[in-house]
Backbone:
């Protein structure tokens, strides 16, 4: 199953859905996170399942997607969940490589690393690059984890995801998952992924306020779990 949290991604969401390898996934779920544009109708027309989360926040949307996946029974319940942004900055067609370590090598969590892959010039703003470097360095110092990125494109075994008991509602979602994975002893690795300039303006690093709030929340999450 693929879970795509989406807030006002009407201009990009169809491209994202179309580029997902259909032979690889059981269901594409778009979580409409209080959008006021064409995100929902465009997602439905492209063949995705759409659920709504009216409390705005990246973590809120991801938690709603997990709740939906957990409501499935038997063979309908996913073995692996892939999280993917709806802004078309990631390359959905690289999903096969992302999930390969889980399917073939029994890893529990795979992080798509933009730092190790090919990045289009200007696709990551300086504050995002610096913030990633600072956060992953702190996680290495305090938790001994060898992460290179907090990127949104990631895959995880669904039963392991449920064990993490994810709680964050906003900007700390990705770092919470990675820290808890280390503390729980999950087998994790990184896979290089490509990255391009997103369609539209980032709701986080695209504004000064968003950058400050995200940076504060990420650092708070790192220290909270010590």
Residues:
């Amino acid at each position: 199953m693929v879970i795509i949290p989406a807030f006002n991604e009407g201009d990009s969401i169809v491209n994202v859905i179309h580029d997902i390898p259909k032979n690889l996934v059981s269901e594409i779920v778009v979580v409409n996170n209080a959008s006021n544009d064409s995100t929902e109708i465009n997602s439905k027309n492209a063949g995705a399942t759409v659920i709504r989360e009216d409390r705005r926040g990246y973590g809120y949307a991801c938690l709603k997607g997990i709740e939906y996946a957990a409501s499935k029974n038997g063979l309908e319940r996913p073995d692996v969940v892939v999280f993917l942004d709806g802004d078309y900055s990631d390359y959905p067609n690289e999903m096969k490589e992302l999930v390969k370590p889980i399917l073939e090598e029994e890893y529990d969590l795979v992080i798509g690393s933009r730092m190790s892959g090919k990045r289009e010039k200007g696709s990551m703003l300086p504050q995002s690059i610096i913030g990633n470097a600072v956060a992953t360095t702190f996680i290495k110092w305090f938790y001994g984890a060898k992460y290179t990125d907090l990127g949104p494109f990631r895959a995880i075994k669904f039963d392991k995801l449920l064990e993490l008991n994810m709680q964050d509602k906003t900007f700390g979602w990705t770092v919470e998952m990675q820290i808890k994975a280390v503390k729980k002893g999950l087998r994790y690795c990184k896979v290089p992924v490509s990255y391009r300039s997103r369609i539209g303006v980032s709701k986080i690093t695209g504004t000064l306020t968003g950058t400050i709030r995200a940076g504060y929340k990420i650092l708070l999450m790192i220290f909270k779990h010590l």
